[in-house]
Design a protein that fits this description.
The protein is α+β, with helices and mostly antiparallel strands. The chain is about 30% helix and about 30% strand. This is Type II toxin-antitoxin system HicB family antitoxin.
Length: about 70
């Protein structure tokens, strides 16, 4: 099964809801939310899975850092 590494940001809003955000491509931004940090990340994973099913897996460049 292919893997996709996606940088993300997780924050808690003023109402206590956790929000997770990621950019799949420069044009595709995805969000997840939940009552916990883990629930928001799981919702984001679902959004990423659905988006890649619709638009395909974006090209990736892997760079080895010193």
């Amino acid at each position: 099964m292919p893997q996709l590494h996606v940088p993300y940001v997780v924050e808690q809003d003023e109402d206590g809801t956790w929000l997770a955000e990621a950019a799949l491509t420069p044009d595709i931004f995805l969000q997840g939310e939940g009552e916990t940090r883990e629930a928001a990340l799981e919702d984001l994973r679902t959004s990423i899975t659905q988006a890649t099913a619709e638009s395909g897996i974006p090209d990736q460049l892997v760079v080895d850092l010193p």
